[in-house]
């Protein structure tokens, strides 16, 4: 932890605890460019990205944010070079195994969203174990979006609902937002209040399309591995200046 981060152990004084977002979601972009800038292979950017994510999770715990969701691998990321995909899968598996004990002790509740059945079997086992072992934890809810696509999530919800209608278990006019939400991967979790994307890109990239309907979006030019507590402080400060109207005047 840098000296600057040590100073930011506690919620900074210019942030209001009662106005903190309950749920923060992050699109961790810019790992490859960060690595290139340092003259390193792209994959080293992902490795550094894991450290940034670990510190953000700790920071959310320290400052009182109740839920964090991170976009770790999209349904489109399979199109990357095979060695990068393999590196990401192995890294993910190793980090899960290494960090699980600590997350159990720190009361973190781990969840995964995405098409998990399409992931390598060993990884699926690691995912099931981490969800099972943290199921009764009541601290921060940490959700990892893995092989996740917002459109695919909406489509699979439509299919499941259509199937219920076909079986006569549900009437079409009974389909409302609450019914729909129960069929999303994120069923039972609250929507993100703040969505952060690093590296300056201004896109949602198929992330939490339904759930982000009223999220405040914050974009920073900083590459993900450099997104530290001072950056998070800036994002939260900007969020607290916004007026959230949810369609009202
Ligand atoms: C985007 O940067 C980043 C990713 C596609 C992967 C992010 C994954 C991690 C940080 C690992 C997460 C691990 C766990 C255990 C949750 P990019 O490669 O698109 O960067 P670029 O736009 O500069 O090329």
Plain-language structure description:
The protein has 249 residues and is α/β, with parallel strands linked by helices. The protein has helices at 3-7, 31-37, 42-63, 82-105, 121-134, 150-166, 177-182, 229-241; strands spanning 23-27, 67-74, 109-113, 141-148, 194-197, 216-219. It has a single domain (21-149, 192-239), classed as Decaprenyl diphosphate synthase-like (Undecaprenyl pyrophosphate synthetase), CATH 3.40.1180. Strands 3-4-2-1-5-6 form a six-stranded parallel beta sheet, sandwiched between helices. The termini are far apart. The model has no long low-confidence stretch (mean pLDDT 95).
List keywords for this structure.
6 strands; six-stranded parallel β-sheet; transferase; 8 helices; Undecaprenyl pyrophosphate synthetase; alpha/beta; 249 residues; binds farnesyl diphosphate; UPP_synth-like_CS; EC 2.5.1.-
Largest sheet, described in full? 6 strands, parallel
Heteromolecules bound: farnesyl diphosphate
Superfamily (CATH H level) name = Decaprenyl diphosphate synthase-like
Outline: globular
Number of strands: 6
> Share of helix among residues?
40-55%
- In the predicted model, the low-confidence regions spanning at least 5 consecutive residues are none
**Whole-number radius of gyration?**
19 Å
How are helices and strands ordered from N to C? HEHHEHEHEHHEEH
By CATH, the architecture is named 3-Layer(aba) Sandwich
Secondary-structure map with pairings?
Layout: H1 3-7, E1 23-27, H2 31-37, H3 42-63, E2 67-74, H4 82-105, E3 109-113, H5 121-134, E4 141-148, H6 150-166, H7 177-182, E5 194-197, E6 216-219, H8 229-241
Parallel strand pairs: 1-2, 1-5, 2-4, 3-4, 5-6
The structure holds farnesyl diphosphate (FPP).
EC number: 2.5.1.-
Binding site for Mg(2+): 29, 216
Keywords: Magnesium, Metal-binding, Transferase
């Amino acid at each position: 932890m840098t000296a600057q981060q040590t100073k930011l152990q506690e919620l900074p004084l210019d942030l209001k605890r009662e106005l903190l977002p309950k749920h923060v979601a992050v699109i961790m972009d810019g790992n490859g460019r960060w690595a290139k800038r340092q003259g390193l292979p792209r994959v080293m950017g992902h490795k550094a990205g894991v450290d940034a994510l670990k510190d953000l999770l700790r920071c959310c715990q320290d400052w009182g944010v109740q839920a964090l969701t991170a976009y770790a691998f999209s349904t489109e990321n399979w199109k990357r070079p095979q060695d990068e995909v393999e590196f990401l899968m192995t890294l993910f598996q190793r980090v899960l195994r290494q960090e699980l004990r600590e997350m159990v002790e720190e009361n973190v509740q781990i969840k995964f969203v995405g098409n998990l059945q399409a992931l390598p079997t060993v990884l699926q086992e690691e995912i099931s174990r981490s969800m099972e072992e943290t199921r009764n934890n009541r601290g921060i809810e940490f959700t990892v979006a893995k092989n996740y696509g917002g459109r695919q999530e909406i489509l699979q919800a439509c299919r499941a609902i259509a199937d219920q209608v076909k079986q006569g278990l549900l009437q079409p006019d009974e389909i409302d937002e609450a019914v729909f939400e129960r069929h999303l991967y994120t069923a039972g979790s609250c929507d993100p209040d703040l969505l952060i994307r690093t590296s300056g890109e201004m896109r949602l990239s198929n992330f939490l399309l339904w759930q982000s309907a009223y999220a405040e979006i914050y974009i920073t030019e900083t590459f993900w591995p450099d997104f530290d507590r001072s950056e998070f402080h800036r994002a939260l400060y900007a969020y607290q200046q916004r007026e959230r109207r949810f369609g009202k005047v």
